[in-house]
Amino acid sequence: MRFFRIEKNIDVRKVRAVLRALETHVECHRAYLVTTSGFSRTCKKLAKESEGKLTLVAGDELSEYVQWTIFDPDGSDDESGE
């Protein structure tokens, strides 16, 4: 899994690098490329042509996946902290 936090759309070179890595590492069958920005049309086309081996997750979709959870080490559900 690779994460990129940049403002511009991810260019095709990064997608091609991930696809090459998939070919090189035979034990890896699937990859996710995650960014806070977006992907070019060519990137989306390459991901589609990968037949499910590469999933692209862009900023708008990423926000749907992210959930904030409050970790309570005591296991208490009491908001008062008691």
- Derived structural class: alpha/beta
End-to-end separation in angstroms reads 40 Å
Our estimate of the beta-strand percent is 5-15%
Evaluate the radius of gyration: 18 Å
Structure write-up:
The protein has 82 residues and is an alpha/beta fold. The protein has one domain. The chain is 35% helix and 15% strand. It is built from three helices and three strands, in the order βαβαβα. It has a three-stranded parallel β-sheet. It is globular. The N and C termini lie far apart (40 Å). The model has no long low-confidence stretch (mean pLDDT 80).
Ordered list of secondary-structure elements with their pairings:
Elements: E1 2-4, H1 12-24, E2 31-35, H2 41-49, E3 54-57, H3 59-65
Parallel strand pairs: 1-2, 2-3
Structure summary:
The chain has 82 residues and is α/β, with parallel strands linked by helices.
Q: Descriptors for this entry?
A:
three-stranded parallel β-sheet, alpha/beta, 82 residues, 3 strands
